[in-house]
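Appendix B. Raw example, untouched.
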Amino acid sequence: MDSLRSVRCGARKLTAAGVLLACGWLAAACPAWAGAQAERALQAVRQMRLAGDIPAGTTLALTVKQGNLASFLGPDGEIKARWEAQTGVPIDAKVMPQLDSRAFIRDDAATDLTIARNHEYPDLMAEGLIEDLTPWLARFGFALSDDPASGYILAPQQSRFGGQVVAIPADGDVAVLYLRKDLLDDPDHQRRFAARFGRPLGVPQTWAEYNDLVAYFHQPAAGLYGSLEPREPLTGWMYWMLRYASRGRPNGELFDAQMRPRIDSPAGIAATRDYLAMVPASPPEILKAGNDYSYTLPLFLQGKGFSTIITLAAAKLINAPTSKVAGKVIAVPMPGSMVNGALVRRGGLIYGNNLVIPRSARHKALAVLFAMWLTDPDNSRLSVGVRGGFTDPYRFNHFDDPRIREVYSAPMLATVRDDLSTVMPAGTGLPGNAEYLAALSDQLARAAAGTISAEESMRRTAQAWEKITEARGREAQMAYWHAFRQLFPDTLERAR
């Protein structure tokens, strides 16, 4: 069904109240605009209504970040209006800070449904802040399908912690490497690069090749930075993880089976050196606190950088009519590392704003049903296709939807889809994840500032991680680590 058309009864578009009155949410007389998952959710709401489980005046409290608001409510509030028309349950939508969600969820007891980043699940569950959704999905007969036609593209990685379903995927924040194709295609650059590096100028296969490209194109006097990857203290770990993940076969793993850190090793040091190689080819304030993608992405859109790594959401802005780099940028696979004769490439989930239900929520059943209704294969196409929203494709059918292909571009969507088998889950997957990542980020920031070496940063991080593991109980952490490893990819690239 085409979820992009307006809800209609007859030839004229109706308001939410008009649809409710003319069609009736109990009788569901209007033609369906959603798929089977959404219809199941609506039927469950009807049954709750008939059973008296939705008291008069019930409102669903939804709190999301500013970038999610347009996606989750729809253009001109269309998604919100459709839900309210078909269920009779109003949505009270509010905006939360553009930070990790843990502090917000801990302090706000009035929210029924909110969002959390992938790497936050372990701490949210360990602190009892969000619901285990496994019994709720079973109650209503839902499953997070990953079928290749219209299923969730990375369902286990985006929804699970310790074998439990703790979130509903609603944002496919896979890391994407963007490069200036116009510069790669320039004959003068091709000639000079080949003379300097002894190989053709082109898309990098390895991190070492990427480092060379960034160094070559770094021309600050001409207003061009080689790299516009974020390196600020809070989120720098994301970009280090991408490099480290490809340093093992099949994966660069943070811990061994006994939860001993593996990062104080040649692999960890090499990943750190690759991470640090971007700093001299970046803007002078790249290390300043708060200068995350909100600092680097605008510079890239102004044509002031050769490369950046950020989520697929950037494609909407890159391809926008106002962008100075529209038509000049390509999305390419994440570089990798040669390990025992094989090229290992690993992508990763970064950021990601998926739907979670606070333990303190007053209307948990309705929150589950709205989440499943919103992320239905058909309904979700409207959500992802909103040009002003930052919800990225998270179902397979999104990659083929005409509206979504228009705002993201077919080639950039294809790059992400073709590389899904290489995507690592986010963070450490362990309770205390925030502590582990803070320790890593602190030492990376010190190394980036030049106060310690790559070797020292990994040694200090490993020592800090050991203390965190001991404090939380090694045996317990080992069990969580084993469960997290089940989400790792096993795909290898062929040797070149």
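End of appendix B.
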